[in-house]
Write a structure and sequence with these properties.
heterodimer; A: 1030 residues; alpha+beta; nine-stranded antiparallel sheet; 30 strands; 55% helix; 20% strand; B: 97 residues; four-stranded antiparallel sheet; globular
Amino acid sequence: MTTLCFVAVAIIGLFSLTTLPIDLYPDVETNTIMVMTTYQGASAQDIEQNVTRPLENSLNAVNDLKHITSKSRENISVITLEFEYGKDIDVLTNDVRDKLDMVKSSLPDNAENPIIFKFSSDMIPIVMLSVQATESMPGLYKILDDAVANPLARISGVGSVSISGAPKREIHIYVDPNRLEAYNLSIETISAIVAAENRNIPGGSFDIGSDTYALRVQGEFTSSDELKNIVVGSRDGRNIYLRDVARVDDSLEERAQQTYNDGQKGAMIVIQKQSGANSVEISNAVIKMLPQLQRRLPSDVKLGVIVDTSDNIRNTIRSLVETVLYALLFVVIVVFTFLGRWRATMIIVITIPISLIASFIYLALTGNSLNIVSLSALSISIGMVVDDAIVVLENVTTHIERGSNPKQAAIHGTNEVAVSVIASTLTLIAVFFPLTLVTGMTGVLFRQLGWMVTIMMIISTVCALSLTPMLCSQLLRKDVKHGRLYTLLFTPINKGLDAFDNGYAWLLQKVVGHKTVTILVCMAIFVGSLALLKHVGTEFFPTADDGRLGVNLELPIGTRVEIAQEATQRLSKEWRDKYPEIQTLNYTTGQASSDNTYASLRDNGPHIVSMNIRLSDPGDRERKITEIAALMREDLKRYPEFKKAQVNVGGNRGGAMGGQATIDYEIYGYNFEETDSVARQLVNVLQGIEGTADIMISRSDYQPEYQVDFDREKLAIYGLNLQTAATYLRNRINGSISSQFREDGEEYDIKVMYAPEHRTSIEDIENILIYNSAGQGVRVRDVGKVVERFTPPTIERKDRERIITVSTVVQGVPMSQVVEQSQAEIYKMYIPVGINIELAGSYEDQQDSFRDLLMLAALIIILVYIVMAAQFESYSYPGIIMTSLLFAFSGVFIILYLTGHTLNVMSMIGAIMLIGIVVKNGIVLIDYISLNRERGLSIRQAVVLGGKSRLRPVVMTTLTTILGMVPMAVGTGQGAEMWRPMGTAVIGGLTLSTLLTLLFVPALYCIFAYVGVRRTRKTHRRNLANNTSK
Amino acid sequence: MKSILITFDQAHYENIVTLLEKSNCRGFTAWREVQGRGSRDGEPHYGTHAWPSLASAIITMVEDHRVAPLLEALKEMDIRSPKLGLRAFVWNIEQAI
């Protein structure tokens, strides 16, 4: 019966495992909502005043709002609402919508309705493909669209496939303004005529005899050459053909993004997933499809992979699985060494996978995935799930050795320890269950860890109380006969363990004899380690090495794309020569077309270059990603062309997890000049601090541009208005899309515009002819002036105040160090009244998480105390046991100091887990000592004997946990940076605390016990005296 | 008729019931959980935190000639696992209904 139940659990668990998707992190629900409002023709300041502020004021009342930031740019206001993590975004969206409805009426009349836009991590591309082409370059877009993008978009789960770098075909009608003028034509007329000619019009149906026929006019052009022969007007009785006033250029769009892969021009295909789809599955399908797609392409077009995010996920998970298996192996070895019997070891080994597998059922039921957090939970638990089984097994073995037959021994042995097994599980649950209650970012991450460990603990206890005794009754034998190999192997081990026990007993004798000295020495170690804390830096998350670098370069605004391209080409060549670690290097520059969803969401423009670099696997190279990034930043300093340059580890700047930490200094203040100057001062200050890199000011520069100031009165005289005049300008320079040219089911824009040579100077603009409704032409210079101006930058606001952010990447030193130094410098700076500087970025996240975690630690300590107090029916024993926590924390500090790790969220979690594990050791010890006293031994004897007999279980459970963590702490696989601090912290804390607990706790116990005895004696004596005096 | 009171560690229970059956002693009365400790040595059986083990007791009335072999068998059982503890006490039955 028992067996069958557990077999069923194992089978369901294994089945769940096969259905579990793989991911890097648990699903993090989005926590941001954007509200976009357009108000055509308004300047940044108008937008801020009339749109952004009223919206912000009313949106600020939405519940659970963390920050409200906004960008007011020409024509558009973008408000970003950042909510607390873990809230239901749908409910929040409704709230936001309600608030918008309320405020809508107070917006300017011409402002469009605000649009709500939910931002999510799904926007991050999961696969980027590079395309190299030579001869096929001109037709590349169509080739890729047909042969690559469309098949890829059909893979289930793929959200969008965007092609960048391959310009689309476009038919240009380049008009010569002089000829137009001569024939008295305008761009608008030509555009209208082209549109009118390029038509298919159904004429209805008519009957001939007994049949019905459809009547149609097929006027659509079948080739672009036909365009030339359109009649656009007539003069002196002669037709004017389009070819007389313009040239038809069937080519590619003028301003397109250019993409270079490893120095060769080509294109880039970006694949984004649908929300909720699994990245690994999609990328697997994409990669599988590639060879098949390649076959359909012309021979000069080559597909390659630039970024495959799932690569990193797979490698990380693989190395973590390896870690879990090693942990399993170590635990088995430890158990075998200490128990010395293979049958007993078998029993323990069987219970481990069952507890672990049961947790897969939880994952599958809640729709979670196998990710860093859930696998770490497995790795952590391996050492702990064996503890209960070991306790039961030991007691059953004692019974058998006393002479019971295995079956009876299993029953009675288990009953005897059931309560204490449950109690010790409760203390662990008291540690891990509160993890499920944490809110915020850390909560999202560690909720899963909390649930998984809690579930595994419960299952392992159930296992220990049912499966283990069952197996004991079947597998254990009354009289064990050992083979020769056993004797050979275990005689020295047993001798060693006995010597260890005796040595400890001797040491314990000494310690109990010199209690004060022991306690002083231990406290000195604790206080000493606190001093080390000063030298241990703090940061948010460790930087993960996923082999991806994103480089964003910005040239001065208005730089032509050719110049940006040339400089980047030089840079990329230098880098590819200099860093052999670079596997692929791809960059994109230029203005993105509006139908490229991926590119249009990012900053783009002719002066902006975004570069993706993939490095070889972390295991295959000497230099770490952060080192390479640092060298690249140095290189970039030698390129004065690039006004702003960022090297981002992990692809994105300031990513919550994995990327390099950033510190944002937020400068709040209304006055532009003052805040600008403070920002510049701050940049200077930061540059002088060690460890800062890539310092950026968020406010962009004033942008130079030409504006035409029309004189409204003059316009009115000619019967024109501003809109008509402006449209004329736009049609000539930007072009007017008159119609679509259809070929093979594809549509291409036909654009009428001035020929490029006629739009190169201010005179060209001034000479533009504007026609009024009466057909009279007037030149721009007669009704307005062309002037050069600087447009004010985007106005950024946060929490309803204007803000500039100066942000820096932290490189090579702990974040806390940069924060401390910069705060000291900022304190010295002159800051005008009304301006204040606040710290945000990873630093703010870190502060939030640390606060959460410290609260959590306090909560856990209280819970654990309550559980222990209930178990011991005493207030002082739990207090004694709790002292071992001090050493756990000093162990953490010492090992972090020695290994050079920092105190970050991962090592904090390690420290929190220690609370449960360390306390467990204390419980085992104190429990047995007090048992000895109940059996009538003296305090000193109880302590020494109890310590001696409990040494092995304590050392064994500690070793299983420590060795379970060793693969985590020394792992070198991909993503190992993330959990290395956690493993290290647990090892350090557990080692030191176990060593000191074994000495400190007995000493402290003695003191408390003597006090207790003295108090009882005193009461007794008083009672005696009272009785005699009566 | 003699009565035999057997007190022993819980682990012995099934063996003793089987022994009684084999020895053709049908009737008996058993207490599955009793506490106590031996006069000379052995662990107390209190079912407490300090002494978690428990004892059982069986009282059985047998014909006089069955007493000796039964005690013999019990003695053997006790010698086999001295740490568990097993004691038997015999006295006369004067009347019964």
